[in-house]
């Protein structure tokens, strides 16, 4: 059955955003999961469910939230081999291969990372991101390889999600970009949002974008290309791809941001999520895991040297 919870706002609780108020009050509900419930009309304030997540509650407001009963997922667990970098009772870190979608969506209901981890973990996956995304707390693009955290329970999910929100997770990528990057290191900033004309793409935008910060370092200058390391301060969709294209150095093979140029016949962008470091949700100790460079990447480096 659905769970129904009511709150009456006291004087010392006024002027707090409703998503923050509810995520603080309800155990095992992250702010993002509360925001989804608000968007789906499961939260009412004084009987009105046409509200936004940034609404500030007032003294005397009556808030009602309905938490829908968990729906049995229709996703089929599939015996797909996982490259496991680390595993314990709370988290699983995998090295995602190229051409694998992280979670099911239109056109991709099988062969995804979720299908694989559902087979591997059985019932031990967090449910916070809904029935199509069990265990998924963050993601990388289909053609980006590398380290990805899977959460086995809601407590771990909330803990990792909070670190992602606070930008405290250490995320280091390796990539090969077109052209010779002049500066040995630097930082690219620029708010990222949906491209105003092409809905498949993201772009640096002046309105409705989210702050994005990418630190870069040149590792090696190659023939008409540069081997680079990127450290993400934020984690926006296509962030490295958009930022590098914005300075005239798109990732090699990028189907969206390199103007169709793909002289090395790559399957998608030459980008690898190498290292991920974070505070473990149970032990509170720092963990850092690195995924080795994939074979196509090392072969490409050899060709370009």
Number of helices: 6
Q: How many beta-strand runs?
A: 14
Please report which band the strand proportion falls in: under 5%, 5-15%, 15-25%, 25-35%, 35-45% or over 45%: 25-35%
Summed over residues and divided by their number, the pLDDT gives a mean of 91
Summarize the structure.
The chain has 305 residues and is α+β, with helices and mostly antiparallel strands. It has helices at 18-25, 31-39, 113-121, 154-165, 239-246, 295-304; strands at residues 3-8, 43-45, 62-67, 84-87, 91-96, 145-151, 170-178, 185-189, 192-194, 202-204, 213-221, 225-232, 271-279, 286-290.
Description:
Helix content is 18%, strand content 27%. The protein is of the alpha+beta class and 305 residues long. It has three domains: 3-67, RNA-binding S4 domain (Structural Genomics Hypothetical 15.5 Kd Protein In mrcA-pckA Intergenic Region, Chain A), CATH 3.10.290.10; 71-165, 2-Layer Sandwich (Pseudouridine synthase); 171-273 and 298-304, Pseudouridine synthase, CATH 3.30.2350. The strands form three sheets. Strands 4, 5, 6, 7, 8, 11, 12, 13 and 14 form a nine-stranded mixed β-sheet that branches. Helix 1 crosses helix 2.
